[in-house]
Design the sequence.
């Protein structure tokens, strides 16, 4: 089950990365030797955000935070299957 979840997580992050790249953002997919993959997004003004895909109850969500934040904010998430997930994240990080 764990390996299947990691493949799903990677797939969601890769799709989001392509969508954000299409919106003009610099994106890096970070694959650590230990731990889960994350997406690093650099905004238009140079701020960096880390985006993760997490399974919540019965579906996947994207959560994001600035590179310097240690805690996730509860209001910073969007459903991974949403067609406009990249647009929502781009709007939130540039607000």
Sequence:
């Amino acid at each position: 089950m764990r390996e299947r979840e990691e493949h799903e997580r990677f797939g969601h992050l890769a799709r989001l990365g392509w969508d954000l790249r299409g919106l003009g953002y610099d994106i890096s997919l970070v694959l650590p030797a230990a731990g889960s993959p994350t997406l690093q997004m650099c905004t238009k003004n140079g701020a960096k955000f880390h985006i993760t895909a997490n399974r919540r109850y019965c579906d996947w969500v994207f959560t994001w935070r600035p590179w310097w934040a240690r805690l996730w904010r509860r209001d910073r998430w969007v459903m991974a299957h949403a067609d406009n997930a990249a647009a929502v994240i781009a709007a939130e990080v540039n607000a």
About this structure: Strands lie at 26-30, 38-42, 48-56, 59-66, 77-79.
